[in-house]
Amino acid sequence: MAEGSTVASLTKEDLDVLTVAEIRGIISHRLAIPRSHHSSKALLLEWILARADVGLIETLAAVIQVKLADRLSKREQQKRKNTEQVRSQRKAARVEAIEQRTNHDPNLYLDLPSEDVLHRCYESYIEATSDAAVKLSICAVCARELIPKDDSVSNIALSDIPNT
Fold this sequence. Notes:
Layout: H1 12-15, H2 20-27, H3 41-51, H4 54-103, H5 115-129, H6 131-134, E1 137-138, E2 145-146, H7 148-151
Antiparallel strand pairs: 1-2
């Protein structure tokens, strides 16, 4: 609602803050609305502004002010929450960077890996690029390509399936 607005100056824009359900809840049993004005919010607001008594307008104005105040406080709380979250993320990143610097030994930079580490690297590379790793099967039901190793596929020959 505009600053310094009075009860008589309640406008359609002010009432737009409220939902149709909220408006109907407030005006129920206080103002009769014809069926022709139930279909759209614009028609409902026009009817209310034209026919509402001062008490109903004051009630609507109070509800609007409460809703706007709630929105403002929620917005401020969200801003505070976001700044606190950003601070904690920055702090976490700084702590991780410091830990990485302290755990790193620059003297080991050019040292070769041990034989065991080297063999494990070779084995994992060969296993990942072998024929069995890249082999595909096709599902007879959905015709999707499947990786037998990952999808636990059971291969059945077409001659073993009855009625084929």
